[in-house]
Design goal:
nine-stranded parallel β-sheet; nine-stranded mixed β-sheet; alpha/beta; 32% helix; single chain
């Protein structure tokens, strides 16, 4: 055996297959795993993994790095959480194809749907492309700290072909469908892993308009999916509304049946119909038994809004007295909020109606202090409403004081999906369903209201080690779910396993020390834009294509990551 480039010594291996943990060395040569077992040869580089957990790199199938990959080579925060491959272009939004006249339109859509600030996008995106193949060719010349894969976004495609008619959601014509299908086929040939669309009322532009794809016809979706899948394996990813699920899910299943295209969509528990997820999983399992390739993407914890003075939203944002000072910089606003007359005025007012889909009239029985360490599965009695009643106070007062803490950086946590029962038992059932994979981390998005790119770490810490309010999951199950299973769901059969011949994407983890810190606001995107990040401890090393990209939680500066062009298999 030739000298390995890298040997990971004596780790406890969760190999991604779901099988039992075992102790072994792992040798890496020329970017691939060359041997697993007792390895006598000394590597050019060695990592002592005794007492550490060794896993495949995680594959995150639901991110929104479409803009970030154009201005940054470090795909944080995903790369800080053990992710070695991230799939972007989800939910029908992205930046290619795009005519110059539509740059602002697509930026407004991304800002509204994914809460990525317009100034960041306007300053950061170079628009060095028009077509989707141009976008892929441009990205293929860039190096990253992880691999990135792209999907063709329906909104961009529809506006590109139909112009204003597409933006205002007019039905497509046969000619429109043929044109979109042609471009979709070209996208797959250029390396698109799939096509994404959205049919939810929650997805709106920053000016309040609904997404162009909201009511796209079955004929349009069938033409696009069929054209893509005829050119190579291609996944159709979509987001549906609970209110129209009874119509839209059967339609999407018909599209899948007609085109033989694998489909992947998000399932969450909704407060309005807390048991609908069971019926939905039953429907997709029945479809799978009919031969359809179908995957449910499941959030690892509640999809939770973070509210605060430094963030996009807070409970008092519609109160007239708060609106009067909302434009002030944080320091000046904080000074005003400390004034007794301002406090009294704001607390005497009530929230008013707004068409913002992510602003809910405050329900203080579902609003928590996240804590340190952050606790995403708190009992209902921890909420501000019950706390206030026990203390003979108003919950608004507690919320106000919490946001003033830490020099105005205090945050409130509102779990608005996957928490109808006040625990994560339903989430556990969803995660263990045979048709499900972990998803919905939204890495790169929701910069000022949601911080869920830490899902991969949370799956390991909470579900296998820290959970106290219900059953846990095993390390082998969790590792397989977010490495091999996610990789297979998007056609990447070359990764997600620690076995000879597979791509050498590996994590070495100090499992006992693995720990998430509370979210904090950082101002590191272009033009000093804002985004929420969570520091994490415990990743001893992250390896991409055999190259160590992170050690002890710090970037090494090496960037072996590339654009993934199309479905990938093992080399012969």
């Amino acid at each position: 055996m030739s000298t390995p480039d890298l040997v990971i010594r004596g780790g406890t291996v969760a190999d991604g297959s779901g099988g039992e943990l075992f102790e072994a060395d792992v040798a890496i040569t020329s970017g691939k795993i060359s041997e697993v077992g007792k390895i006598s040869a000394k590597g050019n580089e060695e990592i002592d993994a005794r007492g550490k957990l060794v896993t495949p790199g995680f594959v995150d199938v639901h991110t929104h790095y479409d803009g970030q990959v154009t201005w940054s080579q470090d795909i944080t925060p995903s790369s800080q959480n053990g992710v070695t491959t991230a799939i972007m272009g989800n939910c029908g939004v992205g930046f290619a194809p795009c005519k110059p006249a539509d740059h602002v339109r697509l930026i407004q859509l991304m800002e509204g749907v994914e809460d990525i600030p317009e100034p960041v996008l306007s300053a950061g995106i170079p628009w060095a492309w028009e077509s989707f193949p141009d976008y892929m060719n441009w990205l293929s010349k860039r190096d990253f700290d992880i691999d990135v894969g792209a999907q063709l976004p329906h909104a961009a495609l529809r506006v590109y072909v139909m112009g204003e008619r597409g933006a205002r959601r007019d039905p497509s014509t046969e000619e429109d469908n043929a044109a979109m299908a042609k471009l979709a086929g070209e996208a797959v040939r250029s390396g698109a892993l799939g096509f994404s669309t959205s049919r939810t009322l929650n997805h709106r532009t920053s000016t309040g308009d609904f997404t162009p794809t909201l009511k796209a016809g079955e004929d349009e979706l069938t033409a696009i999916a069929g054209a893509m899948h005829s050119q190579g394996r291609s996944v159709l990813q979509f987001v549906l509304d609970l209110s129209t699920l009874h119509e839209d899910l059967p339609m999407m299943l018909r599209v899948a049946e007609a085109t033989k295209c694998p489909i992947s969509f998000s399932i969450t528990q909704n407060d309005k119909a807390p048991n609908r997820w069971r019926q939905t999983l039953d429907e997709i399992n029945a479809a799978a038994r009919r031969g359809l390739s179908i995957t449910a993407q499941i959030a690892a914890r509640p999809v939770g809004l973070l509210l605060g003075l430094e963030l996009s939203r807070n409970p008092f944002q519609t109160h007239p007295s708060y609106k009067a000072i909302a434009h002030l910089p944080l320091k000046e606003r904080l000074a005003a909020l400390h004034q007794s007359e301002v406090r009294k005025a704001i607390l005497s007012e009530t929230a008013t109606a707004t068409d913002d889909p992510l602003f809910f009239r405050p329900n203080y029985d579902k609003m928590f202090l996240l804590g340190d360490p952050p606790d995403y599965e708190q009992p209902p009695e921890n909420a501000l409403g019950p706390q206030a009643r026990r203390r003979g106070r108003q919950p608004e007062e507690l919320a106000y004081e919490a946001m003033l803490s830490d020099e105005g950086r205090g945050m409130l946590y509102v779990p608005f999906l996957n928490y109808a029962d006040g625990n994560l038992d339903a989430t556990r059932e969803m995660l263990i369903d045979p048709q499900s994979v972990p998803g919905l981390s939204d890495g790169g998005a929701h910069c000022g209201i949601i911080c869920d790119a830490s899902f991969p770490t949370y799956l390991l810490t909470h579900w296998t080690r820290d959970r106290t309010r219900g059953e846990k999951l095993t390390i082998p199950f969790v590792v397989a779910a977010q490495s091999r299973k996610t990789a297979l769901s998007v056609g990447l059969t070359d990764r997600g396993l620690i076995a000879p011949g597979y791509k050498a994407d590996v994590n070495v983890i100090d499992y006992d020390r693995l720990h998430l810190h509370p979210p904090k606001v950082h101002y590191d995107p272009p033009v000093g834009g804002r985004r929420l990040l969570q520091d994490v401890d415990g990743y001893e090393a992250t390896i991409v294509s055999g190259v160590v990209t992170r050690r002890q939680g710090e970037a090494t500066g090496r960037r072996p990551g590339k654009l993934v062009r199309g479905a990938q298999g093992l080399a012969n």
